[in-house]
Amino acid sequence: MSVQAFLAAARAIVGPEFALEGAAIEPRYLEPARYAPGRAAALVRPATTAQVAELVQLVAAHDLTLVPQGAHTGLVRAGTPTDGERHVLLATDRLRERFEFDPLDRTLRVSAGYKLSEINERLEAEGLFFPIDLSADPSVGGMLAHNTGGTRMLRYGDVRANTLALTAVLAGGQVLQAGRGLQKDNTGLALQQLFVGSSGSLGVITEATLKLHPLPRQRAAALVAPAALDAVLPLYQTLMASELAGLVSAFEGISKPALQAALQHVGDAGKLFDGHLPEYALLVELASELPAARLDLNALLQEVLEREFESGRVVDAVIGADEQIWALRHSISEGLRDWGKVIGFDVSLPRRHFMRFRAEGAAWLAEHFPPARLADFGHLGDGGLHFNLAWPHDAPPLDAEAMARLREGINAIVVALGGSFSAEHGVGPQIQAAYWQFSDAATLALAGGIEALMNPKRTLGLTRFGAPDAKT
Q1: CATH 2.30.30.240 at 332-416, yes or no
Q2: Which of 58, 151, 177, 358 has the CA that lies 20 to 30 A from 409?
Q3: Mean pLDDT score of the chain, rounded to an integer?
């Protein structure tokens, strides 16, 4: 193994300025969204799929490990290298050779380096968009590698549901075109789906064909105060069984502490609900491709809420302030950082156990980690929950052993209730141990076999899908 020899060959492939030794790497490539900075022996920034293929072969030849990285917005550390001797960071930000929009098929074939915001800005004039909605701005490759969902998954589905084809470079340097970009294609295994959610450990995604959707011409949002927790899911059921079900684009739940954190962060703590915050609030949004002149969403939403007032399930609501409501929703994470070190759990549950998990998780935290300030929120409509907490700045810091016990305890409750301990952030080093612990033997055996076939020398990625004895 020789990093210097690798760098000399890599510079001949991508150019000297795009193959850097560890000490010369800009911090933005090493510092993840929420955790301590990583380390890498080298950084390479290819511009084409062909260059990626050469680099993948070069890494294997020098017995190094390649860590693919998108926009580095993820929270599971799968794109953050940790070994200053062996890890080569492959940033995909220069992979921008393709942006092919098909207006008839309403698809976009696009390179992995494009960001979500760029795609939607360029598609706006066509009246279309890629419907993944996040507070972050991920790249195409990163979204696919971790199967991003977002706040409007209830209506549009996740990245997997909107990926028709992709190009990936395999561990041996072969370039695989998986799928033809067709809406209907039943000619064999849908290999493109194997790479979605793989965290970069089965191949480096360099481009994808995405399914696009009509851009809504209007939205109407409300922040709703239910009368009690036991009114939340009946309200959801009523809405989704009504004539408005096809218009519902978001149904979010926000706990009182999460609202407080967001309001304190934006400096507007006393105005919402006249300062009397509910224990749990709902963010409900309707969206339509029809203009307001033909379908008045605000009027429809107000009509629904008035019926709920009369039924006694709703006691207050804020309506007609869509931008402010969503800005508040997206300020929760920043507000929690004001309170302390954020410890996040991205979980998914059957809706019938959603409130039970909140209660059991809160009780477990109060017993075992009393300083933690719980402020959960998330995508109640699709079962997703950000069970996030802030560890106060003035509390003794959690060591590695305590953090492991914390994660194991919460994840055990999730699994016991039939949930998933990783709803949409993917598997990375942050939850690798949970994946091994809570996955059944048959899953680990099959996933390990696929990994051994596609990444036999473990030269790609940091996630290991086989049994724990396969870890590096």
Answers
A1: no
A2: 151
A3: 94
Contacts of 306 (CB under 8 A, 6+ apart): none
What tens digit of pLDDT does each residue of 229-252 get? 999 999 999 999 998 999 999 999
Phi, psi (rounded to 5 degrees) for 255:
-70, 160
Q: Could you tell me the two tokens for 311?
A: 């039924």
Q: Report the alpha-carbon distance of residue 407 to residue 12 in Å, rounded.
A: 44
- Provide the greatest CA pair distance for the chain: 74
E strands in 163-259: 163-169, 175-178, 204-211, 213-214, 218-226, 248-255
pLDDT for the residue 270: 56
Q: Quick check: 363 pLDDT over 70?
A: yes
What is the C-alpha to C-alpha distance for residues 333 and 344, in angstroms, rounded to an integer?
Answer: 10
Instruction: Return the minimum-mean-pLDDT range out of 94-98, 147-151, 174-178, 441-445.
Output: 147-151
Contact indicator for 266, 330 with CB cutoff of 8 Å: no
Whether 472 has a pLDDT exceeding 50, the answer reads no
Q: How far is CA 345 from the centre of its chain?
A: 12
Domain 3-91 is in which class? alpha beta
Q: Which two structure tokens, joined as six digits, stand for 467? A: 């049994």
C-alpha–C-alpha distance, residues 148 and 160, integer Å: 8
440 class by beta-carbon count within 10 Å (0-12 exposed, 13-18 middle, 19+ buried): exposed
Candidates 3.40.50.1000, 3.30.750.24, 3.30.465.10, 3.40.1010.10; CATH matching 99-214: 3.30.465.10
Distance CA 430, CA 408 (A): 12
Q: CA-CA distance, 53 to 46, in Å (whole number)?
A: 10
Mean pLDDT of 189-197: 96
Domain boundary assignment for the chain:
3-91, 99-214, 218-330, 332-416, 439-470
Name the amino acid, one letter, at 104: L
Tokens encoding 264? 């304190």
One fold for both 218-330 and 332-416? yes
Round to whole Å and give the CA distance between 246 and 286.
9
Q: Is 348 helix (H, G, I), strand (E, B) or coil?
A: strand
Residues 199 and 146 sit within 8 Å (Cβ to Cβ): yes
CATH class of 218-330: alpha beta
- Model confidence over 37-90: pLDDT tens digits? 899 999 999 999 999 999 999 999 999 999 999 999 877 889 999 999 999 999
- Enumerate the β-bridge partners of residue 176: 168
User: pLDDT tens across 152-164, in order?
Assistant: 999 999 999 999 9
Residues facing residue 292 across a β-bridge: none
Distance CA 291, CA 298 (A): 12
Q: Hey, what amino acid is at 336?
A: L
